[in-house]
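In the previous lecture we treated proteins in isolation. Real proteins rarely work alone, and many bind small molecules. This record shows how such a complex is specified: first the sequence, then the SMILES for S-adenosylmethionine.
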Amino acid sequence: MPRCCVDRSAVSLVRWDDGHTRRGERLRGDVRADAVLRRAGDHPRAIPAGAEILELGSGAGRVTHELIALGHPVVAVDSDPRMLDRIRGAELVCARIEELDLGRRFPVVLLGSHLVNRPEPGALLDSCRRHAGGVVLIERHPPSWFADPAGVRDVTRPGPGLLAATVDHTIGATTWTEDFVVRDHDLPVLLEEHGLAVERYLTEDERWVLSVPRQRCPGCRRTARRCPA
Ligand SMILES: C[S@@+](CC[C@H](N)C(=O)[O-])C[C@H]1O[C@@H](n2cnc3c(N)ncnc32)[C@H](O)[C@@H]1O
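The predicted 3D structure, ligand included, written as tokens:
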């Protein structure tokens, strides 16, 4: 069984999947992805209409289905086949993001669901960079959330920049809990280390970030800022 985003039993994972799918149905009119893409579209480096999107950590397709409805071909990647089973209309790839190498680049790479807030997200970002042929859209917990984390309980700060907490998910009569640890990274610095650069924040709370690949020196392959030449 592939590793999932947090350790959880098969039973709670299936519940989470059910909940997410049901929430996805409820969210269909909420057009969160639509709003984000429209903002990105205002930008000079607009997401071209109909651009193919590589969605990393697609889950059960909550955002995927919105993107497809907007006319984007989507390649949906998730390490859990039970999640991918729920998706219709996308190319499905069951793989760990860190090890993914599709051998091609995409005009849009999407890394949602705060995966970038993992304590060590370097391999995730390397995968974004490897597949980036245009922009990389990232959803994160912004610094303001770390100062005042909403929707979670039992918050502790186990180390510099780290926040551990528990979140309760309730769907109908069923509630289950998830423990997690996230880090408040200095995003511009982190992205720079992985060959990406913040282009602009797409939302006022700086939750959605539009980033672009940094150009690499053709000689040493380092990003322009690190190249000694
Ligand atoms: C919180 S869910 C969110 C799904 C979707 N992005 C959404 O917003 O509805 C995160 C998903 O990422 C997947 N995931 C987490 N870490 C992954 C990894 N390293 N490689 C591939 N998939 C991963 C999990 O299996 C899960 O389906």
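Summary for your notes: The radius of gyration is 18 Å. Residues 4-5, 20, 57-59, 62-63, 78-80, 83, 96-98, 112-113 surround S-adenosylmethionine (CB under 6 Å).
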